[in-house]
């Protein structure tokens, strides 16, 4: 059964000449730009972008019964290709008859046309459909059925949009043939493709680190010079001389004379350098280390080759007569696929296949919905490559995340069934001794931990507990949990001491694999904005990988990272302070006090702290988070108490509780206290005793107090016990690709086998 907020329009409405009015406005280049609100289609059915992605189908048959979709649903209104041809290389559009030319087409797909009109004013008030003709290079397509998209009619020469309705299969072939010709002539480009983001790296140590990593990983590069292209790899980085040694497999490479423009691929970035000097020797090219490096971020999610035999099957959203297509999947990520298609499949950017079934082998299927983002030119073998952004249906979300995670990090796996080995790793690595603890203190949590480990693999929406196994046991582990609305917590990292197992050549391979597996996992979550961790900087690896990275990002002033030393202090629920608190009244915070607390925290802490910990006014109670954990049968709770003196709020305690076993140090059972007046800390002991009773009522024998200030006399008054002083570490999800690039450089660079 199909589920949506509104009924799906029937296919029969397409050929009845109904009005099609889209709530969009064109830009100066003729590109539709969405306004707030919905897109009104035939019969007044909303077709907002949110609505498109909310539709779900209980079965493939239910979906296929409504194909073909209406054009506004089958393709984005900004789909297709941008055109910039003039004169004989321009596609023109005519209305009513082939001779009534409206102007040159600036964007085109089988579902939408945008035109730069030749006349200053065009009457777009006509609501019905009417004949539309497209002409290019002496050929004409039409009549097509089209209707005006609402436009800024008051502006002279305002771009005019036309929604095409009921385009036949043959007409679709003709339109895409026009576009293929325009692509060959260099006057068209995919409209849906996002431009890469570029930044400049000038720090010499950073540049050396990047090239050390590229050299060790063997990634490919391309030299471009005066129309020549030479494909090559960075064979060696001569550290002493700062010289880069490139190698090509071409038998007679034409290196030419410098300067050289070279592109090379890193972990998930393309780097570009300009080598002003250099020389070739046979299959080798020698250049100097550049003083600056341009980085072009080309993917948010890392893509990897798909396992052999993976197929995608789907119907064309516009033309069901094409039949069921079954195409090879070449690579994938959490949010994308590359599929090998044929020109006859009639794919184009912006097309929205509402159901794609991925055949994973052994009879397993995963259902996703997608958008075509890129279509290559015809390759030598007669095929085209289609890049899609995809989103799994909720019923298949867990299976999709597990499949992609395992494909992207095949050396790792989730920990269910390996709890005893994982417990042994914690013992061997010294994890149980952190902060002065002892292994015996954790035995009571082993059952809860084992139970949660089994559940975690089934709930990737909240957990990722990854391990790197070998024949001698588990080599390393790192876990992620989602305790807040927009933030994931990285925790419980441990690695077996000593030499790596046989067969592992790189010292950093294990840590790199485990970091990639866990830090990429939250990227499948559309609500993912922040990563939080509490890291022990006494460990040199942690200090370099986490603390130094965050400090470097903080120095930019962009507000995307935060780190500072705190103290994790332990409080026992039965151990009251014994102090007289009669001057204070302690109770749940009122609405006004919650607003005061949110404002106080916002003044005292950076935005990333406030946002990641759900300390904004609208998220203080964490209700959506609590409900989500509860839907999976797990505990997650927050309460806020305020201490008042003569009715004046002095201080607030934010108390949180998490599922037992989610963190072995009970990190989710934590309390923070905030002073609301100048001497508010005098109320802290009253709040701490109230917190003890709150945890006691929930059968928690102890909890953590996260001290984020300079401390003072209140620490002793509250009866708190000293604990470790880690760094609180926060980075934006926007930095995760860059952070993983940083981890890749640190770990690959440690090998150094190809550097001299």
Give the beta-strand count: 41
- Give the number of helices: 16
How is the largest sheet built, in terms of strand order? 13-21-18-17-14-15-16-20-19
Q: Give the N-terminus to C-terminus distance in angstroms.
A: 63 Å
Shape: globular
- Report Rg: 30 Å
Question: What's the story with the biggest beta sheet?
Answer: 9 strands, antiparallel
Output mean pLDDT: 84
Low-confidence parts lasting 5 or more residues at pLDDT below 50? 1-72, 750-756
Helices and strands: which structural class?
alpha+beta
Strand content: 25-35%
Question: What portion of residues is helical?
Answer: 10-25%
Overall description:
By secondary structure, the chain is α+β, with helices and mostly antiparallel strands. 22% of the residues lie in helices and 33% in strands. It is built from 16 helices and 41 strands. The protein has a nine-stranded antiparallel beta sheet. A seven-stranded mixed beta sheet has the order 29-30-31-32-33-41-34. This is PilZ domain-containing protein.
How are the SSEs ordered, and which strands pair?
Elements: E1 2-3, E2 24-26, E3 32-34, H1 49-54, E4 56-57, H2 60-64, H3 71-74, E5 81-83, E6 92-95, E7 101-108, E8 112-117, E9 130-136, E10 139-149, E11 160-165, H4 169-184, E12 188-190, E13 197-201, H5 204-217, E14 220-225, E15 228-238, E16 243-247, E17 260-265, E18 269-275, E19 278-281, E20 284-288, E21 293-297, E22 304-305, E23 311-314, E24 325-333, E25 336-341, E26 356-361, E27 364-375, E28 384-392, H6 397-408, E29 413-414, H7 419-429, H8 446-456, E30 463-470, E31 473-481, E32 487-495, H9 509-520, E33 530-535, H10 540-554, E34 561-565, E35 567-572, E36 585-588, H11 591-604, H12 607-612, H13 623-631, E37 636-645, E38 648-658, E39 670-675, H14 684-697, E40 702-707, H15 713-717, E41 727-732, H16 736-749
Parallel strand pairs: 32-33, 39-40
Antiparallel strand pairs: 1-4, 2-3, 5-7, 5-12, 6-7, 6-9, 7-8, 8-11, 9-10, 10-11, 13-21, 14-15, 14-17, 15-16, 16-20, 17-18, 18-21, 19-20, 22-24, 23-24, 23-26, 24-25, 25-28, 26-27, 27-28, 29-30, 30-31, 31-32, 33-41, 34-41, 35-40, 36-37, 37-38, 38-39
Helix pairs in contact: 5-16, 9-16
